[in-house]
């Protein structure tokens, strides 16, 4: 069980430090699944920031089920994230899939994301633990809470104390109406077991944009510290995860709804 106070994960962004933690305001991370081109990423960054998000998320390297699906634009997408950061002042969160890309990701990202599929890639965990940027560790889709916390422990043991845990839904038996089953019970359970900040991702957690707002509100009611929401300027044309992405207008509206229900945004 947890001993002592909740940790604060302090992230430096162009507009100053942002703190993730139990005793701090909710931190919202928003943006497209994939970085597609300059116009869409800069536009999305502007819109989500104006709505109150502190971080832009967007994948340069995408872990796709099919090798024939869009794999992300790689290094050129990192440059576009750097541009969005420079133009708007939002912090950047992007995923590392291969340790060989870590150095160039660390140059651009304010937080390095380890995705669900790599949650138990122990050599990658050791490497992200040995670099200085905070790490967002998503729960594996079939990971127990113990598996997840031990994965976080790999990062901590390698010397990086700044780990944020992100629930993004687990595999159960229904894939017809929901992509995953968002396990909101992790919020009180993790609170008891760990001092690390807790993020909830209702976008991957449900797979459908129409279900995202209610689960975002439920996550706040459960007591999470942060939310990750996929937002795309034209979800119907998205190169990945369009069905679960909110439009910027819908995201803006959701942020206003969230502000009403507590833990100030
Ligand atoms: C993502 O954040 O776009 C992503 C691929 O998430 P996950 O690893 O949770 O599937
Ligand atoms: Mn996605």
From TrEMBL:
<dbReference type="GO" id="GO:0016832">
    <property type="term" value="F:aldehyde-lyase activity"/>
</dbReference>
<protein>
    <submittedName>
        <fullName>3-deoxy-7-phosphoheptulonate synthase</fullName>
        <ecNumber>2.5.1.54</ecNumber>
    </submittedName>
</protein>
<dbReference type="GO" id="GO:0009073">
    <property type="term" value="P:aromatic amino acid family biosynthetic process"/>
</dbReference>
<keyword id="KW-0808">Transferase</keyword>
<feature type="domain" description="DAHP synthetase I/KDSA">
    <location>
        <begin position="17"/>
        <end position="260"/>
    </location>
</feature>
<dbReference type="GO" id="GO:0003849">
    <property type="term" value="F:3-deoxy-7-phosphoheptulonate synthase activity"/>
</dbReference>
